[in-house]
Design goal:
Helix content is 59%, strand content 0%. The protein has one domain. It is mainly α and 157 residues long. The longest helix is centred in the C-terminal third of the chain and has 24 residues. The chain is elongated.
Amino acid sequence: MKILKKIGWVVLLAFVVAQFFGPEKNEGDLTSLTAFIEETNPPSEVRKILKTSCFDCHSDTTNYPWYNSITPVNYWLADHIKEGSKHLNFSKWSTYSTKRKEHKMDELHEEVGERKMPLDSYTWTHAEANLTASQIKQVVDWAKGVQANYGAQLKTE
């Protein structure tokens, strides 16, 4: 029994010490999204949806929840953000080629339309990110329109 007690104290001490360390935060400036917003011109409702359901993981700026201060949760969140930004980063939109923008908009409306995005692991803790059928339709219709515009640009290039 004494060995279990010692192991418990070591685990508790390791947990407390771990709280002093954490991953780098994704705390960029909201102005990094300006190029994307201006170029794709989402309607105000779609812009709101993007802000509440997409930008935390798919941009250089994240609005962190209170529990991000707890290790190991902060590492799990950092990994989600890193993976999301690797696949699509709205803050880097101006660096994407027209072909890549067209492809990303195709992926966006496909992922949202098939309810693959936002991830369940995100909506569990961000209830406001759960999309209604109407919101999904708004995002999908907007994204298809933007994709079509990029497709038309590609044909003239």
